[in-house]
Amino acid sequence: MKTILMSAVAAVVLTAPAWAQADLDANGDGMVTLDEVQAVNADITAEGFSAMDTDADGVLSPEEVSAAQDAGQLPAATE
Ligand SMILES: [Ca+2]
Ligand SMILES: [Ca+2]
């Protein structure tokens, strides 16, 4: 169990460098949906989400999350 957990953590670190959106990505699929954003900050509207979703694919990539955090549109990582 511990080995599996460590492997999962290592995989996340290797595939998603320089973004700490664990608080946002509730299901751990590497992308952040509107539902996941609103679970953290219910004040974020669909319009606000669209503004952060710069490539308009309906989910926030690590880069989009980082940009939104830099712009103050999302809460910064807590770790
Ligand atoms: Ca997700
Ligand atoms: Ca996107």
TrEMBL record:
<dbReference type="InterPro" id="IPR011992">
    <property type="entry name" value="EF-hand-dom_pair"/>
</dbReference>
<dbReference type="Pfam" id="PF13202">
    <property type="entry name" value="EF-hand_5"/>
</dbReference>
<dbReference type="InterPro" id="IPR002048">
    <property type="entry name" value="EF_hand_dom"/>
</dbReference>
<keyword id="KW-0732">Signal</keyword>
<protein>
    <recommendedName>
        <fullName>EF-hand domain-containing protein</fullName>
    </recommendedName>
</protein>
<feature type="domain" description="EF-hand">
    <location>
        <begin position="49"/>
        <end position="64"/>
    </location>
</feature>
<feature type="domain" description="EF-hand">
    <location>
        <begin position="24"/>
        <end position="40"/>
    </location>
</feature>
<dbReference type="InterPro" id="IPR018247">
    <property type="entry name" value="EF_Hand_1_Ca_BS"/>
</dbReference>
<feature type="signal peptide">
    <location>
        <begin position="1"/>
        <end position="22"/>
    </location>
</feature>
<dbReference type="GO" id="GO:0005509">
    <property type="term" value="F:calcium ion binding"/>
</dbReference>
